[in-house]
Amino acid sequence: MPDVLARKLIDKAVIGSDGTELGTLSTLTMDPDTGRLGDLLITPRSETTEQIDLERDEDGRYAVDIGRVQAVKDHIVVDR
Fold first, then answer.
1. Which terminus, N or C, of the chain has the lesser number of Cβ atoms within 10 Å?
2. What is the pLDDT of residues 38-67, one digit of tens each?
3. Which pTM does this prediction carry?
4. For position 28, what pLDDT does the model report?
5. For the chain, which domains are there?
6. Residue 16: left (phi > 0), alpha (psi -120 to 50), or beta?
7. PRC-barrel domain: which residues (predicted)?
8. Overall average pLDDT of the 19-32 stretch
9. How far is CA 49 from the centre of its chain?
């Protein structure tokens, strides 16, 4: 996968590999000591919040490990 600037990812649509529309990318987490990227924090679509079984942060956003990213184009695809 080619390099993509993080600021270009914010507000991109995020979908699951099964085609489920998850929401939009809110932010990325990073370990400041190692520089390792951690999770994508995804603001859920309001109509899907009860139907998707993903870990959530304290603000209700989906927390998806960066290792689950499969593709980044017009939208971000994550393994489900």
1. N
2. 999 999 987 655 578 889 999 999 999 999
3. 0.84
4. 93
5. 6-78 (2.30.30.240)
6. beta
7. 4-79
8. 94
9. 14
- Edge-to-edge strand ranges of the sheet holding 37-44: 62-65, 37-44, 21-30, 13-16, 76-78, 69-72
Amino acid at 34: T
- Which tokens hold the place of 23? 């929401």
CB distance 9 to 60 below 8 Å = no
Instruction: Look at residues 23, 31, 35 and name the one whose alpha carbon lies nearest to residue 75.
Output: 23
Instruction: Report which of 28, 33, 34 is spatially closest to residue 72, judged by C-alpha positions.
Output: 28
**What whole-number distance in Å separates Cα of residue 37 and Cα of residue 40?**
9
Which amino acid, residue 21?
A: E
Mean pLDDT over each residue of the chain, to the nearest integer: 89
Tell me, what amino acid is at 25?
L
Instruction: Tell how far CA 6 is from the center of its chain.
Output: 12
